[in-house]
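Listing S7. Sequence submitted for prediction.
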Amino acid sequence: MTHTFITNSPEETIELAKRFGQKLCGGETIAYKGGLGAGKTTFTRGLAIGMGLSDEVTSPTFALVNEYAQKGVTLRLVHFDMYRITGALDLETTGFFDYMDSNTVIACEWSENIESELPDDSIYITIERVDDDTRKITIEGAERLADTWN
């Protein structure tokens, strides 16, 4: 199942992702595709808010992974940047597989670099920059969350 949305501001992107984040229950892997500045981190900020976490989400470009958890919230969000990861061996050094559990949502930027290593039930989110403010967001593989968009 594929759903496509157009957002006209970072705030609209966050709101869309917030609705999506409210439906997550843990164990999901979200695989982002989109160029530099497309809005992957902005979408992740919305996910965090929807999950009941802080909105202080930053790009994991230099750290490779940022973990977001909050006292009183059972889920955690782990945000990866795979831009510099070139294969399974590199991926292993990030601890990626150690985070796969039922209390964790993984959001993975530059997922195309590790596509063969992603779980079969990954949710793919492609973010395309239309202009400075407008984004085309396509979500695939989220059948369980289909009622989010009704």
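Caption to Listing S7: primary sequence and predicted structure tokens for the chain studied. Residues 8 and 134 are 4 Å apart (CA to CA). The chain is about 20% helix and 25% strand.
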